[in-house]
Specification:
Blueprint lengths: L16 H19 L4 E2 L1 H7 L4 H10 L10 E2 H12 L5 E6 L3 H7 L3 H4 L2 E8 L8 E2 L2 E5 L3 H8 L3 E4 L3 H13 L4 E4 L12 E4 L2 H18 L1
Parallel strand pairs: 3-4, 3-7, 4-6, 7-8, 8-9
Antiparallel strand pairs: 1-2, 5-6
């Protein structure tokens, strides 16, 4: 499910990051239209739904490789399947999560992950107060058990939600356990080998953008 796009220009299936970020928005709208009984959607209808430039919408849809029909548009089922297939959301990857504090616990209970191809099957921690407990139906194990369980359950995806001071140590444990994809929520840029995909999710960056926009809006009032 987790795929790097920065150094894979040789693969014509790899799109630019902005395009990838737009795809879940398309998917949400397409599924909503399907639930309303629609079978087809036109490019114009999508443009009207979105705050994207028309040329971007048209280019994104062309890259999905699904032909549209004159006066009818795109078949919703075909377009939904194409986007889910590209994103890897048509299959489910099992994942381990390390760090079951406030953020980690919230992610353990985030049901849309499984709907979008990622199933967190267990959590790990070193805090005796958390080890052995169950959070949102997921058992919490001690970090020392991760390697054996990852090999036994064939886990290839790891999620890191520990403080930055511990993040690299946790990443090393995941890598030694055979994990090939790491979703990193710590503030630390991890060092990983070339065959391990690592995506850094920096919540502070998002907050910074939001804060500046909010200040600018308040200054206009």
């Amino acid at each position: 499910m987790i795929e790097s796009t920065e150094d894979q220009g040789h693969n014509n299936k790899i799109l630019r990051l902005p395009t990838i970020k737009r795809l879940p928005t398309y998917l949400h709208i397409l599924k909503r239209l399907k639930s309303e009984g629609e079978e087809y959607v036109s490019t114009t209808a999508l443009i009207n739904e979105l705050d994207f430039k028309p040329i971007l919408v048209r280019k994104d849809l062309v890259l999905m490789g699904i032909p549209g029909k004159p006066r009818t548009g795109y078949c919703l089922d075909d377009l939904i399947k194409a986007i889910e297939s590209f994103l890897g959301w048509n299959k489910v990857d099992k994942a381990f999560l390390v760090g079951t504090g406030a953020l980690g616990s919230a992610l353990l209970g985030h049901k849309p992950f499984e709907e979008n191809g990622l199933k967190i099957v267990a959590g790990f921690d070193v805090d005796p107060a958390r080890v052995g407990k169950t959070i949102h139906g997921k058992k919490i194990y001690h970090l020392s058990e991760l390697k054996e369980l990852a090999r036994r359950m064939d886990i290839k995806v790891g999620i890191i939600t520990v403080p930055w001071q511990s993040a690299q140590e946790v990443a090393d444990v995941l890598i030694e356990a055979g994990i090939k994809g790491i979703w990193n929520f710590s503030m630390l840029k991890l060092k990983t080998p070339p065959d391990v995909v690592c995506h850094n999710e920096n919540l502070a960056s998002g907050l910074a953008v939001f804060s500046v926009k909010l200040q600018q809006q308040q200054n206009l009032i």
